[in-house]
Fold this protein.
Amino acid sequence: MRGLAETATAAAGYAFPNDLHIHWSLMIVLYPYITGIVAGAFIVSSLYHVFKIKSLEPIARFSLVFAFAFLACATLPLLNHLGHPERAFNMMVTPSSTSAMAGFGFIYSAYAIVLILEILFIYRPTMVALKDMSTGFMQKLYNVLAIGSDNVSPESLALDHKIISFLAGIGIPMACILHGYVGFIFGGVKANPLWATPLMPVIFLLSACVSGIAGIIVTYMIIMKVKGREVDLECIRTCIQYLWGFFILDFVFEMLELFSHAYMATHHWETLHELYWGPLYVSFWILQVLVFSVIPFLILTWMNLFRLGDTLVRIFAPLVSLMILFQVLLMRWNVVIGGQLMSKSERGSVYFHPEWLEKEGILPALLIMVLPLVILYVLSKIFPFWLEDDPVASEPTAG
Amino acid sequence: MKDIQAEINKGRRAFIKKVLEGTIAGSLLLVIPAGAMDIPEQITGMREEDGPFIKKKKFAFIVDITRCIGCGSCCVADKNEYNVPDGHYRTWVERYVIDYDDNVYVDSPNGGLDGYQVPREDVPEANVRDTFFVPKLCNMCEKPSCVQVCPVGATYQTDDGFVLIDQKRCVACSYCVQACPYSVRFINPVTKTADKCTWCYHRVRKGLLPACVNVCPVQARLFGDLNDRESQVYRILHEPHVISVLKPGMGNKPSLHYVGLRREVV
């Protein structure tokens, strides 16, 4: 009988009979991937709004809307995964205080409120201007999005600016909590030696920053290409700097975590060793480490240590960012799926290959990953992402 | 001739009478609820308990590895009791084979449901040093990880120490499945909720032993009240035996104890 869990096949040794099912499959790979992109994109925006990295101005607003588009879809894989999605709100109505998972609804909602408010305040002057330029439904919509106030006096904008700084300020720890917390959901499972490490939230957070920055670079450059506009290369160079910095930390911590396991060599190491050199060999060593970590690391080092020509930046920035996006996806796969490939019998492992048309298969996963981009497209019709499209761009937008 | 005919008729009449009596008696048996049959109490003092929780008792489950013969009766009884979907196991029996080179071979085809009637072919019989069977079921931990991680409180611990699942609350997020160190949990594909062994809570409440304990032909599975000093489980746990629990390092404090547990068993 086909269940909610997907069936794995025995690889080696003896796996407990109930361990021949993968209960967390592609949907739970996507969940930290999407929330990671959200947190990372928010960090990019905060680098401009809070840390005043001026060269990031062209993408500061876009990063926020980008984060929102992904945030709007962050719960979809979870809902698709639950056996009883109609009871999902029980997690917020009757949460169990001891559960690491019960906090997600609250942390997610709080973060969503901060993100939406920040977007609305940043765009308020633009919404006011667009409201006056449009008619009918769009006028009404812009009126709502302007939070009902068309006061764009210098005093009012200064107040907006204060609010935005405050929201961006509290948004940083909240973004960190959001994704650090997602790491803890895994890191707190003591029964699983691959997950149960205090480094897990740190690795999740760093990989989130990396995936967010990479996602912004790729999307920004593709949109500019499609629109036939010039990419702001200084902005991209700054992004690549931050990508390099965060990726160094991310990759080093990922390797440190593995090295610690190997060096301490507790009784779990035997199981983990079997896993890394067995079912995870290709997806971890070959793909995640060699192809999508070492090579991007070398490219990023080269791009940051030498001042490359514009053409090279145009080629390598999106390329390396795409590779990093794959790296983070592979990391999520190797953690989420990998952790379930070793049986708790400590003497066996299983293989797992996702199906295309399963409820939690590859096709639903692709649809869920495409949906944020569709939402982003719809939002682009409402919120002008780029300063040159903004009717009030002549004076710098708030922030 | 008339006498013979009369004799046959008499027999017919008696036969029809008996059939009718049987039918009526059978029908009555079907109508009267099973409880009214007064099945003898299997757990002493259970039927004197009242209230929602069994406060005067502290239950323990003991598996005696030195006794188990791997017949699979317990697995069959469990599957019948709960209609467990194929491929999922509330209880299972593992077969351990150890050779003279100290290699350990473990398997549990179909969870031991079919019994172990054929020896392993991949281990040369002459080289086999030892074999034994290990039944597995819910450890009913004093500090259950599954209860800790359940986000909606669907998995809970009763005052009398049972770890149970509220099927009407469970969202099937599978966090409990991941958290259980013993892999006794699964997501039931029929109810779409988490599922596991309950030590037959519904039977225990009626003073009956868990189904697997009831059917075990060699008393390898024992269940009883630790507050009853006359109980078999009390005596075993308080007399000199080699007794252990699974994965003690996890800190879950299982209430499932094993007699004669071998160091090879995980």
